[in-house]
Amino acid sequence: MRTFVQAFSLFLFSALFILATYKLPDWLPADVYLRLDPLLGLTAILTGKEIISRALWSLIIIGATLAIGKFFCSYVCPLGAVIDFLNPLFFHKRSSGELKNEASFRKIKFFLLILFLSAALVGLSLSYLMDPLPLLTRFYTFFLYPLIITLINLILDILRPLFQALGWIGLSHLSYPQPVYYMSFITFLIFAGIIALNRFAPRFWCRYLCPLGAFLGFVSPLGLFKRRVNQDCNECQKCQKACPMGAIGQDPKRMRLPECIQCQTCADVCPKGAITFSAFPSSDRASNVGGEFSPIDFSRRGFLYSFTGGLAVAFLAGRTPFTPLQSKHQLIRAPGALPEAEFLKTCIRCGECMKSCLTNTLQPCLWESGLPGFWTPKMDLRFAPCEQNCNVCGKVCPTQAIRSLSLEEKNHAKVGTAVLRKELCLVWAQDKLCLICDEICPYNAIVFRPVEGYRRPVVIVSKCNGCGFCEQRCPIEGESAIVVVPSGEIRLKEGSYIQQAKKLQLEFKPDPGDDKFILEKSGLKVEEMKDRPEGMLPEEKAISPKPKGFL
């Protein structure tokens, strides 16, 4: 039964991940697993110093844990399911389940939990580093998803001649865009390390390292359903050897309640049927709880070390050797991203927005914004532009670090401004014929104007929302001759982007597509105009002759 529930939970998690695309309907919460994570929700609230509505979904898991026990780790957690399913594939010989100084190892996850929470109190989010749900989501996004798309396209390429022979035109031309992400290899190594640790003990990650399991361990001993052992127990120790969490001690009638994940493996292997899981003790007086409330073995000194360690990490986060690099990079965040300080506090680095991005422009940061910005999404507009008919990144953000906006609001969320680099531009630097940026701009924010007797491309700042189509399509190899910089970006914690754009006198209207600028053989040089007043632009009615290419 538990295996079936685990498989269904993993399937549901994977299905929701696949459905997180630009076609995602508003009523479907593809990020529901991340919303239910109580550790992510608590750290987001502590760092942001405000209640986040989507984070309140985690109260469901906390309430269920209070009623049932630490069932989430055994039945719901998708990473736990992956560990259980892959363990027999890679480790045929069952590990002993015992480590030297195991009691010390069990404290690690509690040290990490206190460290993450104390860092969150002073505004630094770190739980994403070790929380199982963001870890698995990032693995899906950065490694598994691109790998699957590669394999699908490879199979389609192999079968394409067959499809053509059968006259299946749709399949013969079918191909899926290949997503590519930075840090894919690093993500794979982290996931492989989690699986490899099972060589030393079953569910090594869950036993000793998982901070979410530690958080639920504080709550689970209060649950009603507990392991109970009756007088038929013959102390054969089979339950102690079979427990995947090593929660049962030498006395099979006692156990560490904070470690029990309600998997009921001990009851299944008991030859006498002496073990049950029930809410109330049996009427049989010889029946007893197989593990009375046991305090977590966590010393006062250990608590102080972890707490001060979190404060120290938060203090040093902005003072790493990579901090000077922050000023060297001009980060472009997704449309609707909160102001940078709030964004870094609220983002849980799950990667959902990056996976769901239609054009693959959202990529993970490394050191571009320092340690606090590690793994946060940035827009690499040279790689791909931001599709103006897509707003899915805000829909799938579980903490609303990227606000969920309508398409109209999203297109008014100016992420930056395009800037021409004249020394690289073919028109400005080499006087060549090129109008790609002008033609591709969806808002007609790039136009040609007469400059010193020649037509030159210029950017109309009030019409540019930083979508990046011009930067991506620029034919210059290497760095683009036109780049989007965060100058003029609009990032609101609340309120309307449309109203803010109107206040700033910005106008983002779709290009009507009637630009009739025609390049003539004479090149880009503007004809002499005897009657034209000095400094007057072509669109002004008073001028007589007009530059070539203008109506």
Structural notes for this entry:
Helices cover 40% and strands 7% of the residues. With 551 residues, the chain is mainly alpha-helical. The protein has 2 domains: 2-289, no CATH class; 413-516, Alpha-Beta Plaits. The strands form 4 sheets. Strands 2-1-3 form a 3-stranded antiparallel β-sheet. A two-stranded antiparallel ribbon has the order 4-5.
Please describe the structure with a list of short key phrases separated by commas or semicolons:
551 residues, Alpha-Beta Plaits, 3-stranded antiparallel beta sheet, 40% helix, disordered C terminus
Strand content: 5-15%
Q: What are the segments in which pLDDT stays under 50 over at least 5 consecutive residues?
A: 514-522, 528-551
Which term fits the overall shape? elongated
Mean pLDDT: 85
Query: What portion of residues is helical?
Result: 25-40%
| Helix-strand makeup class | mainly alpha
Outline the secondary-structure elements:
Layout: H1 2-19, H2 32-36, H3 38-48, H4 59-67, H5 72-76, H6 78-90, H7 102-106, H8 108-121, H9 132-166, H10 169-172, H11 184-196, H12 204-209, H13 211-219, E1 226-229, H14 238-242, H15 265-269, E2 275-278, E3 288-289, H16 300-316, H17 340-346, H18 352-356, E4 362-364, E5 377-379, H19 392-395, H20 407-412, E6 417-420, H21 426-430, H22 436-440, E7 446-451, E8 454-459, H23 469-473, E9 482-485, H24 497-503
Antiparallel strand pairs: 1-2, 1-3, 4-5, 6-9, 7-8
Helix pairs in contact: 1-6, 3-8, 8-13, 8-16, 9-11
